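Contributing new complexes? Match this layout with S-adenosylmethionine.
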Amino acid sequence: MPKTKKRTASSIADHDGRDSTGRPPVTSAYSTRSGTMLQGRVEDALKHRVLRSKRGLVNLVFTSPPFPLIRKKKYGNRVGEDYLSWLRDLAPKLTELLADDGSIVIEIGNAWEPGSPTMSTLPLRALLAFQEAAGLQLCQHMICHNTARLPGPAEWVTVRRIRLKDSYTHVWWMAKTAFPKADNRRVLLPYSAEMKDLLRRRTYNAGERPSEHIVGEKSFLTDNGGAISASLLEFDEPASRVPIDVQKVANTRHEAEYVRYCKSLGIPPHPARMQPQLAAFFISFLTSPGDTVIDPFAGSNTTGWVAEQMGRQWLSVEASADYVLGSKMRFQ
Ligand SMILES: C[S@@+](CC[C@H](N)C(=O)[O-])C[C@H]1O[C@@H](n2cnc3c(N)ncnc32)[C@H](O)[C@@H]1O
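Output block (do not edit by hand):
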């Protein structure tokens, strides 16, 4: 695992402009062999020399923005129309960073109306607002199903038992063209035992299926190294649902160590970390080694950490000093 470089006077002073208190709005918090973590708001970071130099060169913007919640969380979520107009404003600026064949992938969870067992449409409107404001194509809408999620919203799901557990997030893959760089052979699922058996036997029942599909004599005899992933993403158990390359990166013990580290420093572990496997999936699917991945709302820097392991260049931005400090552990 690469070591983080020491935070030097020059890296701290590496910023554009200062706020009214004289503090730089954006600072370079730490750098590794393959990436840099900027601390500050993305609105300011977009004017920073490091991000400006990436315009038109980024292969993947991968992020989970501060989604609109019922109650404000510590990391300062905006609500309602305010949230939408903020995202609308950011969308073209983040898109400017993209290479012509680059992609933007946004993960966003569901939100519920305060005091009511009904869902807010705000997360979906936010995705639409982002896509429209940036003039992006929607390449694919995926669902990330997290089976390990605790039942909620508690009042409707576990107390009154009138709703089902909210267990997935929306993942929108967008790009400037309908044909951004992508290769589903880089996110192949392990073959099932039946398929492996079939490949060994080299015989099966060809012909018409009840669905009226015609299965040819040799359709299933080519070993492609694995099965094609579905747009329903699941990274818990069983491992047969997790792409082979993604399994190499996933490391749940690391997450426990991250939490312990934050507690030892007396800082809060990030409460809404994404599954590292989700970042690994899109980095593998949409980029090649050496490509550049940016996360403008990096939190505990899951994206940068996974990108580093996968041999990609990365750049992350996070507004909270505590989350930046905690994220440094990932590279030690
Ligand atoms: C959903 S969390 C991201 C979690 C992250 N994917 C992880 O795995 O840890 C969103 C993050 O955006 C940060 N944030 C909110 N507003 C921001 C802004 N204007 N600029 C940069 N970061 C911001 C929050 O502090 C929060 O950590």
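Reviewers usually confirm one structural detail per submission. For this one: Residues 1-17 have pLDDT under 50 and may be disordered.
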